[in-house]
Amino acid sequence: MNVNRGYRIHIRDMMKQIYPNDWELMSGAIWTQNQMTVTKRKEEEERSSSIYNQNSMHDPVVDFSKFTADNENIVNEDLVAWVTVGVMHIPHSEDIPNTATAANSASFFLRPYNYFSEDPSMASQDGILILPTKNGADVNTFGTPDGPSCAIKNKPVKYTGYYGGA
After folding, report:
1. For the residues of 68-134, what is the DSSP string, one character each?
2. What is the Cα–Cα distance from 125 to 142, expressed in whole angstroms?
C-alpha cells in the first residue's frame, strides 16, 4: 500500500467566532471565521491581518477574504495553512486586581504523517522500562545484554516516588 507522506495539523485550542458573519466589523477580522484555511502560497500574502486593520475595519489594510476569493487549485502547489487559535476569557471576580493568565494557552501541532516507512521507535535498541517496587525499582532492558548504552553503568537506581528529587 502506497500512502503519501505529509503533515497533520492538530489544533489543540480553538474558539468559534461568536459574532455573525454579516456584522459590519467582521471584514477587518474575516480570518476568525475558520479554524484553518489553506491557500496557495503567494509572496504578497505574508500575513492574515494587520494591526492597522483596527483603524478601518470596514476597509481593512489586509483583507483576508481576498486570499480565498480566487478559489485557486492547491494540488501540487506550495501551501500555507492559516491556523486560527484562541481562548475566550469571561471576566469573573478573581480577575481583580489583575487577570491571571497562568494555564491559559492556545496552540497547535504540526505533526508528520506517514513520514517514515516504519515506526522509527522499532529500531530503538536502548529500550528500558523502570517500574517502582517496594525494594527500589524493577529495571527491564527487554533482552539487551548490557542494558541501555545511554545510561550510566553500575549506578544504583533509587526510586522515591517523586519526580526530580527526594
Report:
1. HHT----TTS-EEEEE---------GGGSSS---TT----EEEEEES-SSS-GGGG-S---EEEEET
2. 9
Residue in this structure with the C-alpha cell 491556523, named with its chain if needed = 83
pLDDT tens per residue across span 59-113:
889 888 899 888 899 999 999 999 988 777 778 887 777 777 766 778 889 998 8
> Other C-beta atoms within 10 Å of 64: how many?
24
Which residue, among 8, 59, 12, has the nearest Cα to 38 in the 3D structure?
8
| Exposure string for 77-101, b = 16+ CB within 10 A, e = fewer | eeebebbbeeeeeeeeeeeeeeeee
Q: Using CA atoms, how far apart are residues 73 and 79, in angstroms rounded to an integer? A: 11
Q: Shortest CA distance to 157 belongs to which of 143, 125, 141?
A: 141
Nearest to 67 by CA among 49, 84, 53: 49
pTM greater than the 0.70 cutoff: no
Residue-by-residue DSSP string for 13-62:
S-----S-TT-GGGGGGGGGG-SEEEEE--TT---S--GGGGG-SSS-SS
